[in-house]
């Protein structure tokens, strides 16, 4: 798969670990930065970058990291078409894909150990959107995206 990875400084170390592991597993990783842990940067910039890369179709899915995963998920979810989910374990990662069709997975670099994070990402990538009863809810999410654009006069 082609995967976009992005983080702020607080997610940088975990992003580096995951990027290496995912490349070793055969995925193509597009690293959108940030490029070191010592300079403080703003998670909205990187969450939006990952979201835009996914929505553009240039990658299949995205992984976004900050200290908690929360801020970068908020940012990614501002991009129409993004369904970003903050997860903390394998089960939430699997259900984020099966039930919510999450196309961006968000993790907290200050909260998760490397192996828990890798297991969560690996499980999410191996899971499939379940469709069925969930499809109508995904369509309602898409309609919320459209309404946001209308409210801002973009659509
Ligand atoms: C950065 O200090 C931290 O606030 C950020 O990485 C993130 O956890 C926000 O949600």
What gyration radius follows from the Cα positions, in whole Å? 15 Å
Number of β-strand runs: 5
CATH superfamily grouping:
Sugar-phosphate isomerase, RpiB/LacA/LacB
- Structural class, by secondary structure, is alpha/beta
What about the largest sheet?
5 strands, parallel
CATH class: Alpha Beta
Helix content: 40-55%
Strand content: 15-25%
Explain this structure:
The chain contains six helices and five strands; from the N terminus they run βαβαβαβαβαα. By secondary structure, it is of the alpha/beta class. The protein has one domain: Ribose 5-phosphate Isomerase B, Chain: A (3-Layer(aba) Sandwich), CATH 3.40.1400. Strand 1 (2-7), helix 1 and strand 2 (28-31) form a beta-alpha-beta unit. It is globular and about 40 Å long. D-ribose binds at residues 8, 10, 43, 66-68, 70-71.
Search tags:
155 residues; alpha/beta; Ribose 5-phosphate Isomerase B, Chain: A; 5 strands; binds D-ribose
How is this fold's topology laid out?
Layout: E1 2-7, H1 12-24, E2 28-31, H2 43-56, E3 61-66, H3 70-76, E4 84-86, H4 90-98, E5 104-108, H5 114-126, H6 133-151
Parallel strand pairs: 1-2, 1-3, 3-5, 4-5
Helix pairs in contact: 1-5, 2-3, 4-5
Condensed summary:
It contains six helices and five strands.
């Amino acid at each position: 798969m082609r995967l976009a990875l992005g983080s702020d400084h607080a997610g940088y170390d975990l992003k580096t670990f995951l990027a290496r592991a995912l490349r070793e597993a055969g995925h193509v990783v597009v690293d959108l930065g940030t490029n070191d842990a010592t300079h403080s940067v703003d998670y909205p910039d990187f969450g939006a970058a990952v979201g835009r890369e996914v929505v553009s179709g240039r990658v299949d899915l995205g992984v976004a990291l900050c200290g908690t995963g929360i801020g970068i998920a908020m940012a990614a979810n501002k991009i129409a078409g993004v369904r970003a989910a903050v997860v903390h374990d394998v089960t939430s990662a699997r259900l984020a894909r099966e039930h919510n069709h999450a196309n961006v997975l968000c993790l907290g670099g200050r909260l998760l150990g490397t192996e828990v994070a890798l297991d969560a990402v690996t499980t999410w990538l191996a899971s499939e959107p379940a469709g069925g009863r969930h499809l109508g809810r995904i369509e309602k999410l898409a309609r919320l995206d459209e309404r946001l654009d209308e409210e801002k006069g973009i659509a």
